[in-house]
Fold these 3 entries.
Entry 1:
Amino acid sequence: MTSQQGRGSVMFVAPSAYVLGGLGTWLDYMEPGLRALGWEVLMGLVEGPRHHRPQRYLAKHSHVNWHAIACTTGTQEGRLRAVERAINEFAPDLVATVNLPDALLGAARARRRGRPDLKIAMTVHGIQPDLYDDIRAHRGWLDRVFCTNRLACRLATAFGGVDAARVSHVPYGVDYAGPVLRHSGREPLRIAFVGRLEQDQKRIFDLSPILVELDACGIAYELLIAGSGPDEAALRAALAEPLATGKVRLLGFLSPTELRQQVLERVDALLLTSSWETGPIVIWEAMASGVAVVSSRYIGSGLEAALRHDENALLFPIGDCREAAAQLRRLSQAPALGNRLRAAAFRLIETRYSIPVSVANWDRHLRALREQPALSATPSIKAQPAPGRLDRWLGTGLAEQLRARLGPTGPDGGPGGEWPHSHGTTDYWDPEFWALAKTLDHPAVERSPP
């Protein structure tokens, strides 16, 4: 990979299992944006026995320059070899991985075996603790950690132990063509919830009590829910009555174009109930479309200092359904409030969260990474032996060669393993981690009045 305009070459190694959600949206604009600035960009989409299918991913997210990094054996050794082969074939200056620790290890092996100038980076798109376990495990040889959120940057140093000089803050960006004229004070209040339908992070079961509060206040509303996820059936049960009356509609997963046309161009407010976020992109998309944001003070919103209560958004404590409904009621009853929020939100998107701003920020930090010396402390990478007897009998190298001939087989003769999205072992609900996250993410905005 050789850039024609002198910027250099970067390979993003990404999971093809993430067909839905913000990661694909981010990569959709990163490739053309960086290419326009002179980077040679290759999307390395990992392929595995079950869930990682590049062709399925590409049906939703189109990329010009991509390569399938296929592991046919389903073993860690196979995954490391697949990454190393791709690096040796395309010879990028930089490798940036997305939730793929085996891609980090494969890149480290390639650097140790003959590519000493290769720079290796990890991109962080979440606040769950296992990601920072990965940073801590590899902090001695990671050249850069790219975080889309300021709290994630702090956690990379405080929990991950990486030097702050090797951490970059690179927020997401969205399409923005200028202020959009919207009408406030309509009835019913049209509300959107957009995201993965699950409880742990998104807190979707807060929706029902929020609607109960709105009903008690006599606020006429319609709620459009766009997304899919593991807790969808339980959500349908919780919202059975308003679904039956048509006050709530479940739209399923929508493409970015469908989301804009069917939801964001029609609603008055975006409701976000999350416990944590590193963006989210949907907030910036809503603001760019002129939709007022009513959001929890999610972990990740404090240090980022983007959402300002009563200035560009209306905020409520995580899990406080009564206060969430009160903020929606304010929006429905005060048209001037919605107009003021939208005007400030447009300024925020234009200056901090548009695609050109995001791409320019990535360009600056990637150039800095390319110019810094590669870290010399690269360990010898040995994969974990695969389950079963083959590795014990033949050793990992010969066993892997035999598996490559036989196809993907696990210890029982079935399909081998998938690409893991983390090697971390810290429990998702680890109290020490979340106490640290809350302490670091000190609120940078005034709390809403009681």
Note: Confidence is low (pLDDT under 50) at residues 410-415, 444-450.
Entry 2:
Amino acid sequence: MSRSRTIRWVLLVAAIAGLGYLGWQRFHGEEHPAQADGKRAPARTAVPVKTAPVEKADFPVYLTGLGTVQGFNTVVVRSRVDGQINRIAFQEGQFVKEGDTLAEIDPRPFQAVLDQAKAKKAQDAANLANASLDLQRSTRLGEFATRQQTDTQRSTVAQLTAQVEADTAAISNAQTQLDYATVKAPISGIAGLRQVDVGNIVNAATQTGIVTIAQIEPIAVIFTAPEDQLPDIRAALATAPPKVIALSTDGKRELSTGTLSLINNQVDTSSGTIRLKAVFDNKDHALWPGQSVSTRLLVATLKNATVIPDDAVQHGADGLYAYAVNQDNKAELRKIKVTRSIDGRSVVDEGLSLGEQVITAGQFKVQPGSLVTTAIASSDPAQAKVAQE
């Protein structure tokens, strides 16, 4: 009896609890129908994005590469005579002009040789004058002078004339040697590290020079391009020297602008590249010999190309795509074909039309058909800064 009574009490309590729960659920369901509906169908919100228009513009086609700056001319200045350095007339790193004095070698030995050559010429000239007078006297004697005497005197005059001419050449040589005692800059450029000091003995046979001068106005850049681009480069060079831009190695800072001057006469078979030479005025000395730079060679310009910002181009499993915004402010996925890309812009051959708006920021929240709220992206840094503030 006691056991059956306990079971009935348990069942009664369970029934009362169940009825109470059903009543509570019914009460809350009828009291807040809007809340229940809201949980089933949440309201759609617009995704904030930035857009930019699809434009038509002339698009430059550049070949990028790496290059090394070289002095347009580089000269190791050596002594052409033997002697002791009396004076150094330049500062290391100084810009020197052609003809400037760089060093002076003790000129006394060369001056002595020059003076000796001048004295020898004066002596021979006096002998020549005397022999010429003797020849004139022999000629005036006529038949009273033998023919042999006249011919001998005429030969003596000729020998002394030749000797005077040899003396003139010796004087010229001695003057040249004396001039070499003053070492002058053969070109204009930047002087490097000095290799000799005052008091050093230099000679013409020594390979070590006094200083190296590198011409940097203009200056050259040697860089390479793939051999399969050679026809395009030659075609561009045949019309006019194509523009070459030298940039820092990270490609972020433009250093100088020049022109292509030379295509090497053979392709490097080991690397499949062709060496090119560009010339830059370099008036501001932005380029320095030995410096590594990135290069851009302009080989063509695409007229009236369809252009969008690089930020609009997305990569997917099926290739490249972009989101365009239609008239209902909804995102549409467009598969696109990109042929060129540089400086934050890409050329699109298929998938987009002039005047359409493409999403450039916020794509990670966008799905095809998503409602979007747009802000026009600006490529002007000043406008972008104002927008951020």
Note: The chain is about 30% helix and 35% strand.
Entry 3:
Amino acid sequence: MNLQNDLILRAAKGEDIERYPVWLMRQAGRILPEYRAVRESVSGFKELVENPALAAEVTIQPVDILDVDAAIIFSDILVIPEAMNIPYQMVEKRGPWFEHTIRSEEDAKRLEFNFDVEDRLGYVLEAIKLTVKQLNGRVPVIGFAGAPWTILCYMVEGHGSKTFSEAKKLLYTNPTLAHQLLQHVTDVTIAYLKAQVKAGASMIQVFDSWAGILGTEQYATFSLPYLSQIAAAIEDVPVTLFSKGAITSIPALAKLDCNTIGLDWNMDIPVMRSLVGDSRTLQGNLDPCALYGSHQSIEAETIKMLNSFGNNKRHIVNLGHGVYPDVDPEKVKTFIKTVKSYETK
């Protein structure tokens, strides 16, 4: 399908662009009243994720309402452990919760990893197909998955955490099991992302949300090798790696076979550019809290960020993390309009 707006793909590949593309992590839902209306029509988050027609509807909403340059499929990184027989619940105001955790070889026996991904995660793939069809080439669709380390965090801990001490404990007490689990998750994730591309995703992002809780050496041991496998396996579309908090690992990430490195808001863009070089696109990285400011301050902060790009056009504009649910959509529109009206040099 020919895309009417392929800015984000050209930016990821380092091709010429007439302006910087812009989208937001967690744009599909959260801030939009239209999303909340759809959410209230079902029993909860998981039912919405598992309903392809409704998932496609809320995926497209920010394209219609916010005028972003890409749609990211409405789903969750935790569909992978669920497919591997570690089901989760999304508890209102508390986040994900797992009844079963994997902390020993005995626990690991319940894992399933030799299965048909297209069958078990078919609801996500169907949502992508519907989204692509309904967008009819207006903007690309981004597919995604969680990085193996981040998925391991939830599988071992059983819930969200500030420290993920149980997951980190496993790295010290049973690294062999940790590597086995990471490899299983990697294998399933590669098959899943390839299926997303086959379903119509024009770009892939891998979220390593808990990268920052590992030191540089541990990250090099327990995350980078698996991210490397994933990045190398996705050959047909651009790949973005977003490792939140992994500031000291950015140079190593940039050596992987990816197109784009996602930056969180703590990462200074000129410094990151000096570390990454010009062979990779950078994505980000406005502080999500900047969107609580006035329209005038949002415009000023956005322009300051855009100016920090210098003359380098290998940038995709985004926040440094997902948009917060209580942000005024009109403030988000100001952010997007400011990016779109900015004249690249």
Note: The beta strands are 71-72, 88-91, 95-98, 141-146, 203-208, 239-243, 260-262, 281-286, 315-319.
